Automatic annotation (TrEMBL):
The lineage of its organism: Bacteria, Pseudomonadati, Pseudomonadota, Betaproteobacteria, Burkholderiales. This is Heme anaerobic degradation radical SAM methyltransferase ChuW/HutW. InterPro entries: Aldolase_TIM, Coproporphyrinogen-III_oxidase, Elp3/MiaA/NifB-like_rSAM, HutW, rSAM, rSAM_sf. SMART domains: Elp3 (SM00729). It comes from Oxalobacter aliiformigenes. One of its GO terms (molecular function) is 4 iron, 4 sulfur cluster binding. It comes from the Bacteria. PROSITE patterns: RADICAL_SAM. Residues 55-296 form the Radical SAM core domain. One of its GO terms (biological process) is methylation. It holds the Pfam family Radical_SAM. GO terms for cellular component: cytoplasm. Keywords: Iron, Iron-sulfur, Metal-binding, Methyltransferase, S-adenosyl-L-methionine, Transferase.
Amino acid sequence: MPDISDFYAQVSSDPLTMAFAEEKKTMPSLARMRPQPPEWDGGSFAEFGAKAFMARPERPLALYVHVPFCHHHCTFCPFYINQTKKDFSKEYSSLLLKEIVDTAYVLREVVDKRSVDAIYFGGGTPSDLDRDDMAAVIRALYDCFRISPDAEVTVEGRTTGFTADKGKAWVEAGANRFSLGVQSANTALRKKLGRISSREEVGEALNGLCESGASVVIDLMYGLPGQDIPMLLDDIRYISEETGIAGLDLYELRRFPDSPLDKAINRGKMPAMPEFNEKARMFGAAYERLYDYGFEHFSPKHWRRNTRERSLYNRLAGQQTDMIPFGSAAGGRLGTIGLGTARDIGTYAEMVGRGEKPLSRITPSPISADRGGFSHELDVAMERLQLPDMDKWPVSHRDSGRKLLAQWKEAGLLVDSRDGNGMSLTCAGFFWSDRLRKLLTDFVAAPVAG
């Protein structure tokens, strides 16, 4: 039986770097990240689709469209699949249009019984699609599904090639949010990462898209090879003062074995990534500077400058929302059934051509929310930047849980919530949030002494 002290944090003057010992994270190799085809005896999508679609009609519904094509393979990215080639846009968008129509036909008896809350075009690089091709796909989704009037419709992309003309056309088609992988606005650092555009070109692209009327957000990374705190803070200054973006996601760079980044560092062609303590200080510096520039921290990774920016898809995706996948290498779920489409583009095209939903993965997928599990309560609370109220904890762990949270508060990881309900995470608490989540999950899973 573990003792409650096994879950305590270290009390120090620097909780960002000293609350816990550094945990060596072993990232999976790219090969192990690819799902293996499972056994499935529940029939085809044509047989179970409508029933699964209506299994949880009260839950939010999202549509995810994957565009697994990139101009080139950026060194930090483990998700590259296909290279963008001439004429790919017309061919791939035609497949998407057919898949959308065929999927809606399978669901024809029930498709109008649920409204869609979010649509997300991810990748890959969806913005590599030609202007009119993407517009046609967006319109097809509106034609075939019941899209909520306040649905969030996001198109991911990179600043290179994501023109203001595309942005305007896609907003007219129904998009209202653009998410761009900037990672850094430092020109020299961007080139090392395989990003083409300079800082000035990044700013021009972002501001051009802002003029479309869409909410424009970016990904910003810390822990990049050769990056230091002044560089990161200058990125925040630049995007805050010289662009009109509505929000950003702040991510730590992860090093995946066998990725181009991993190989370049091993060969000495790129500098080493910052050490753990330096990354912690980077996070802390960025956290404070974003507040200085008027950004609101409103979900674990996301910051915004106005309430129009909701990051709705990202928030729903973490709550086991029903999500219909489209395109090659897309993932989703309906009810308790996990779905994944064919990763190989040739296989995907063949299946769509035959009129099949191009699924290569169909699996039973339990829902923690339906089980009333603490892990679900933890997910929901974390999304609100808090920990679960004590009445959401198992009765057997409430007394010991109060002691644990009091110790984490003493260690500088938690503060009392402003509304008086529960505990909120501090800056250091957010840096250690993955560790806190794991500790709490383990804590309620077994009897704890003390």
